[in-house]
Amino acid sequence: MGILARLISKSRPHLVPGKLLVTEFWFEVPLDYSKPAGKKLKLFGRTASKYEKPIVEPSPAEKAKSAQKPFLVYLQGGPGFGNPQPQDSTLSSHMLDRGYELLLLDYRGTGFSCPVSASTLALVGGPQEQADYLKHFRADNIVRDCEAVRKFLTKDYPPEKQQWSIFGQSFGGMTSLTYLSFHPEGLRESFITGGLVALDKGAEETYQSTFQKVIERNKAYYEKFPADVADVKYLATKIREVGGEEGVPLPAGGRLTVPLFLTLGISFGKYHGLDIVHNHVVRMKGDVDQFGFFTRGTLNDLQQAMGWDDAVIYSVLHEPIWCYRPGIASNWAAERVGRSLENFKWLRRDWAGPQALPQDEPLYFSGEMVYPFFFDTSDELNKLKDTADILAKYDQWPSLYDEAQLKKNTVPVYAAIYEDMYVYPEDSRRTASIIKDAKTWESSVHFHGALRSHAADVFKQLLQLRDDTIN
């Protein structure tokens, strides 16, 4: 692949809080790399380096040489989320001192890079056209975008600086595995946190594992807050009573139903996640006890906590990211697996409601799963219901991983494995054993979001792996 990225604009470097020197870029890349002359997408990115004012001003030649720091590219989690500003990124605090220049490139369809929404997809055409368009928004093309941008940015660099380092969190770790599989020549090293997924598990097999972690977290929740066994069922009954079959109207559109309420369990995989969910329960019950209904502030708080319709790619492409080779369709795997489990009877069409449960049996919350009912309860996603169904049935996804290449990998890989509700730890260990010479740090006390919540510890451990100071 030649240089397929075209620079549209580049800002002058400017200072931001934290003494970072930031430059903003807009690039143009092909939607479909097999048709480079066809439709184009615009990608937005920022580079950040540590601002230093030297005591002795270097010569122009010395300045030009020192400006060519090796890039470290952050691959964001998701899918569907843009990058933070450089001053808000933990990589700025912990990696710029190591001599890198940070690149925060919004994936296609996220952040400022051709963001995907119901309104922007309407410009593409009907459901089939939208689905065909979105088929180009998985990790394989994210990696192609990165390579196109890398070749452009480093075209005048000396050969030893043309490779770059990547740092993949969660879905970004999955993208890193795709990068290592198909374009290792562009990489100097790879850091992965919470993203070593199985190389040979589709959505159904993945959810069979992760639902078990969700069950464990529910047990921990109700052990910590035993009164919530009754309170959660009481609130579920009240949601049905106040909202009827359609659900309770939400401030920004859409409706709160019992199944949607139970997706708050996605927070169980976060630090203090049990307390986050409990706080919602306390607030909701307080409303009902005092007023007999849910106040606007409470409903807005719930809607912000879920946010399924803010990151549209997350909802329509979350299951397809697990389709690792042709011949696999996601086919609403989370719903199918959940319905087969007694703890998630509320996913079944014939569920009688919370009143049918024994007094001491809790209602279990769900985790990081996407369900078809999202497209009924969200005004934004409802416009994409047919599009999502087409993608769920599609089974000719290109391969995401090359196990043979990973077995002979020569790119240094440093990875963190957590006590993770989103990425099954056993899968992470197995994948790490496949990648030649991968080094891992395991923690039973850190969760999926450790890169944000306990950044100092994570970077210390990963850099020790890199610097080989662990005995």
TrEMBL record:
GO biological process: proteolysis
GO molecular function, a single term: peptidase activity
Organism of provenance: Neoarthrinium moseri
UniProt similarity note: Belongs to the peptidase S33 family.
Keyword Hydrolase recorded: yes
Protein name: AB hydrolase-1 domain-containing protein
Entry keyword set: Hydrolase
Domain AB hydrolase-1 residues, every copy: 71-218
